[in-house]
Amino acid sequence: MVKIFIDPGHGGSDTGATGYGLREKDLTLSISKKIETMLINEYDNVQVKMSRTGDQTVSLIERTNAANAWNADFLLSVHINASGGSGFESYIYIGQFPSRAATDQKRNIIHDEVIKATGLIDRGKKEADFHMVRESQMQSVLTENGFIDNAHDANLLSQSSFLDKIARGHAKGLEKALKLKKKASQPLAAVSSTSVTSSSNEKANDEKYKVNKTLDGYYTAVDAKAEGNKKTTVTKGDYFVFNRSQGMVNVTKVKGMPGSWINPKHNNGANGPENFLIRVKANELWYYNKPDWNAREGKVKKREVFTVVDAFTVNGSKMYELKSGTYITANPQYVEKI
Fold this sequence. Notes:
Layout: E1 2-8, E2 18-19, E3 22-23, H1 24-42, E4 43-44, E5 46-50, H2 60-69, E6 74-81, E7 88-93, H3 100-118, E8 122-128, H4 131-134, E9 139-147, H5 151-157, H6 160-178, E10 181-182, E11 208-211, E12 215-218, H7 221-226, E13 230-234, E14 237-245, E15 248-252, E16 260-262, E17 276-280, E18 284-288, E19 296-301, E20 305-314, E21 317-322, E22 327-329, E23 335-337
Parallel strand pairs: 1-5, 1-6, 6-9, 7-8
Antiparallel strand pairs: 2-3, 4-10, 7-9, 11-14, 12-13, 14-15, 15-16, 17-20, 17-23, 18-19, 18-22, 20-21, 21-22
Helix pairs in contact: 1-6, 3-6
């Protein structure tokens, strides 16, 4: 059993770096959770523990103490860079330690896979006296995944599909570095199509959104859902959708650039159907934790009934948002209105 400790940088009262309406602590948690899901779902004999699983304040010493007490085989600390520049870089401890050569070898593999997966500028394989790589008793690597205060990088970091790429690069790197074994192929659900295998919602920025009245705008989807940490106001008018997450919508006047997150429940249902019920027709059907055909969360059963609060198109196929905050196909072959 390989034990991997993942550390989402910052959290709670420690926001980390900020820029273009983004906060480092939110991005590192999202990426880390994606890596955790990939490792658990796709590989045999892997255990994953995280230093935080929500927006908690956790000190550096608490993080390394937890990893050391758990006797982790490997520690990965995930961060976002700032203060000028663009691209990806990785770190190991600058000092001398017994497993230095082996740690560097694993870091090189992970580093190269992240560059391959993301296409970010390669800023190099570096060394530093960072706490997470100094005080951990196992081989450890810290990654800096783009610059939050760089317009190009921030644009990428605002896209859930790009965070998926960052996570995939880390997961693939860990697979190669730690010689993880893939699980046997799992059968697809009763409903599968070419749209399900698409990697991201490439046409999301073409989606239009009408704001019916002045709304509060927020830095993140988490803030919009909690209605806290207000960023600005979003005035009445027509917008493009930059992203969707947790039932919230990022709307922008400039196509392709991040804007503000809003809570659509305050928009009088202007952009979707009035709430209605659907019933599952298929024997089993995937549901999703975000509007992305790859973000499969679990399965629902035939004749289960759900409340629909919104509808939109993802990669050319209709999807419903459910009252629970999850998503499901709108294909009438698999669900029916009641």
